[in-house]
Amino acid sequence: MPNYTLKINGESKEVEALEDMPLLWVIRDLLKMKGTKFGCGQSFCGACTVHLDGNAVRSCSLPISAVGTGEITTIEGLSENGDHPVQKAWVEHIVPQCGYCQSGQIMNAAALLNSNASPSEEEIEQAMAGNLCRCGTYNRIKDAIVTASKSL
Amino acid sequence: MLPNIPFIQKKKGQDKSKVFVPSRRDFLKLGSLATGGLILGVNFQCSGPKGELVTFAPNVYLSIDSTNQVTLVAHRSEMGTGIRTSLPQIVADELGADWSTIKIVQAEGDEEKYGNQNTDGSFSVRMFFEPMRKAGATARHMLIAAAAADWGVDPSQCDTRDGKVIGDGKEIAFGDLVGKLKDTPVPDPESITLRELSSYKLIGTDVPIYDLKNIAMGKAVFGADVDLPDMKIAVVRRTPVIGAKVVSYNDEKALAVPGVVQVVKIEGSGNPPGLDKALEGIAVIAENTWSAIKGRDALEIEWDLGENKDYSSKKQLAEMLQSTRSNGKVRRERGNFDSANRSASRKIERTYEAPFYAHATIEPPAAIAHVKPDGSCEVWAPTQHPQWARGAVAGALGVDVSQVKVNVTLLGGGFGRKSKPDFVVEAALISKAANGPVRVQWTRDDDLHFDFFHSHSAQRIIATLDSSGGLTGWNHHTVFPAIGSTSSKEELHPSDGEMGLGCVDFPFNVPNIRVETHESTGNTRVGWLRSVSNIHHAFAIHTMLDEIAEARGKDPLENALELLGEDRDITFQSEMVGGEYGNYGESIDNYPWNTGRMKNVIRTLREKSNWDANKAAGKIMGFAAHKSFLTYVGCVVLLEKGADGKILIPEVHYVVDCGVAVNTDRIRSQFEGGAQFATSLATTSEITLENGQVQQNNFDTYQIIRMPAAPKKIHVHIVKSQIKPTGVGEPPVPPFIPALANAMYQMNGQRIYKLPFKV
Q: Domain A3-76 falls in which CATH fold?
């Protein structure tokens, strides 16, 4: 099996993996970082969202061989103490119910605000359309993104 | 083993709070047996002279140590309702603890110790409000007694607040009293005074969920997040048709996938499949999940597809619909519907269809099991029902229940799916074969193919009106594969429990009522999904009531208020035919069906939703009010057409009467989420089977609502009440679907008779 060097959360990590292994399973099974979640395996639900060079990607569908030298950020690397504006807004609005999809929601929201610091309601809806929440926390997510955008 | 839930198997005379309130004699008996850990009665870990940690644990739900750490035990499963916060919140409020410093730990599955842990049926708060109050109050009494004795004052002059006993101008931290409690008499549970409802500081407020920050940081531990040394990962190719059997298989290519270490066959339960058994399948065990998935793809299996191989859900639904035209098995009878039918001056007869639904929790089932060389087994699982998981694993492994330990993780959604321990049993069987710890990981197609679906259903309702517009008769036919059919081929009619979910408990004041059921078979696994049979029953009943209101020339809210009649408690039992009215497992005396409370909900909804003003302004609205799980809910859904012609749901108004409101933020969040969940059921989701096989594989074909189409503003008004609390997990769902359907009719003039419908 080939070896890969990943830049993840500011560190360099060596892994040995099948070249088609999705980044999700590299993160969860090989690097033992469990914050990034498995939901659908086909980019339909967004639970596995991480950042690659600041952009949101679905790690369940991104083979490790395609990652290259990009900088990966997972929920564990978004902030040291949970004080990223998006995380703080999530706490302020008590967004989560079960919480399972929320790592992906937060990473997707943070990437949105990277590219658009004050999105409109419609822009938020469109940008977050790929992240499913079965508990139905969508409106609090929207409110939290607005709150976070104001604090940027 | 049958599920221990009230709507399937009615429990009688069960003392739900026996675990935590030992009688004085029990205490003495148990106290002398106490050997450590949290057990009934006062227990000290140590009280040595060198300042060792001393722990005071007056019952299994709380302990206080000499560092002033208050630890509360969450014994029910957290799947998003907030119960891991709400129940400890009750204990803490009675105790007078400082919420900002409490710790919550999750109990393992142990019914003897903690009482009922089956987190289902929206009954956690209903069942445990009083026991949790008493748990906190017991400790408070003891702490106060110790402090008062020290201070030489009467205990009645003392109280607790922020983790301290206060009184006589003095205060002392709980932790400083712990060492003195061994001489403090245990109060007789009956003598314990609970705080006045009005004096609570946490109950009735927006206490944020305990796991909030951990979730926001990705640190919260769900089922698949548990990692053990040398743990292997298993992915299973299960029977394509329920009841199919493996004839032969070739694992050569699977074993050739790098990382795959073993392939084992799981002996399935056959047909009927049962609620707590593993399905027949071939498990691929690997070093990591990806290798296991690839190994599974490489399996070659020959199946004997068995008796469900020609099953078509479409065909069965058509047959069920046809069956409602005949006389069925009468389940409730009031007056004489036939004579009402003969003398009617107007009849409205409608049929309703609803599909199979999958739970589709975003966390697919996953469980970790470690069967050890001595045959014992430890499990970590996102289970709603740890005791059932424990029993089912013990049964499958052939060991005593005491040999199985079930640790409960957070659940990434449950909605009823994770009550069933089939996936936990799989993990145990595979671990045994692998001689080591194993995580069984379900993929999304596994989840959608092998769910315990909400049954599809057909219904027919005939309503009769007299010449003055009075509703004289109601004949409701319902047919759907019963939950019981998953365990027994003999179960051809819905159970009393299922009929009590929004069908025989039709509360309206109609002189002639007949409710009938028809036969249908189980050909896949069916189970319970958030609000269960209330989903299809409420859809049919409340869209029909909207038609009746129109026929009577009445406003739908007025219509409902009028048909509910006088304020009174309704007893259904005398009209049940050959069965029992379940009342969600509670006695009707303790939890009556009170029309006055429902009328108050509807009147409040009228005001809070600006119904009259909105109506005058020509806004498009639909209404329904439905009681389920003993909670009264009214719902108004507004619709508007967007610039692109798409129909949007700009506003939803809910009014809920759930008795005493414990965690107001989590009550609101359940309704906010319930509206979204119900929008999916109403408009996007549908499971179909052809040739016995589920046709949906992922979220592209089994769709749930996404943010752009989700209801936008969801207003939740909680009725202030001193009445004992009921649950809120499921009740938001049933009234939403007919309210939306009724609004759709206002929008485009087309009545809706089939779920899901396009908006």
A: Ubiquitin-like (UB roll) (3.10.20)
pLDDT value, residue A56 = 98
Tell me if B288 sits within 8 A of B437, measured CB to CB: no
- Asked if B137 and B94 touch (Cβ cutoff 8 Å), the reply is yes
Residues 76-115 in B contacting A (C-alpha not used; CB under 8 Å): 78-82
Ranges of CATH 3.10.20.30 domains, chain A = 3-76
Cβ atoms < 10 Å from Cβ of B402: 11
Q: Nearest residue of A to residue B698 by CA position?
A: A40
Distance from CA of B289 to the nearest CA of A (A): 7
A103–chain B Cβ distance below 8 A for any pair:
yes
ipTM of this complex prediction, to 2 decimal places: 0.99
Q: Which domains, and CATH codes, for chain B?
A: 24-216 (3.30.365.10), 224-307+365-441 (3.30.365.10), 313-358+452-748 (3.30.365.10)
Rounded Cα distance between B43 and B105, Å, is 18
Residue A30 in contact with partner chain B when CB distance is under 8 A: yes
Report how far residue B192's alpha carbon sits from residue B188's, in angstroms, rounded to the nearest whole number. Answer: 7
Contact A126 B708 (CB under 8 A): yes
**B361 contacts in chain A (CB < 8 Å):** 98, 100, 134
* Low-confidence stretches of chain B (pLDDT beneath 50): 1-49
Pick the residue from chain A with its C-alpha nearest to B447.
Answer: A40
Fold of A85-151: DNA polymerase; domain 1 (1.10.150)
Q: Which residue has the tokens 């779920």?
A: B755
CA A15/CA B243 separation, integer angstroms = 42
**Among the partner residues A40, A95, A97, nearest to B699 by beta-carbon distance:** A40
Neighbours of B721 (CB within 10 A): 18
Question: CA–CA separation, B285 vs B266, rounded Å?
Answer: 12
Structure confidence at residue A82 (pLDDT) = 97
Cβ-proximal residues to B169 (8 Å cutoff; 6+ apart), any chain: none
Q: Give yes or no for A83 touching B (CB within 8 A).
A: no
Cα separations in angstroms, B60 against A15, A110, B99, B132: 45, 42, 19, 11
Nearest-neighbour CA in chain A from B529: distance (Å)? 13
Q: Which two tokens stand for residue B554?
A: 């009445």
Answer whether A106 touches B (CB < 8 Å). yes
pLDDT at B189: 66
Q: What is the DSSP string of B683-746?
A: HT--B-EETTEE---STTTS----GGGS-SEEEEEEPP--SPP---SSTTHHHHHHHHHHHHHH
- Residue B256 burial by CB count (10 A; 0-12/13-18/19+): exposed, middle or buried? exposed
Query: pLDDT tens, B438-449?
Result: 999 999 999 999
**Which of 235-264 (B) contact A at CB < 8 A?**
258-259
- Give residue-wise pLDDT tens across range B82-130: 999 999 999 999 999 999 999 999 999 999 999 999 999 999 999 999 9
Q: What is the pLDDT along chain A (152 residues), one digit of tens a residue?
A: 899 999 999 999 999 999 999 999 999 999 999 999 999 999 999 999 999 999 999 999 999 999 999 999 999 999 999 999 999 999 999 999 999 999 999 999 999 999 999 999 999 999 999 999 999 999 999 999 999 999 98
Contacts A47 to B, Cβ<8 Å: 362
Coil, helix or strand at residue A3: strand
Please name the residues in contact with B598: beta carbons below 8 A apart, sequence gap of 6 or more: B507, B564, B625, B627, B632, B634, B657
SS3 call for A25: helix
* Whether B411 and A98 lie within 8 Å, measured CB to CB: yes
- B529/A contact by beta carbon, under 8 A: no
Look at B288 and A29 and tell me if their CB atoms are within 8 Å: yes
DSSP B481-504: --GGGGT-TT--S--HHHHTTTTT
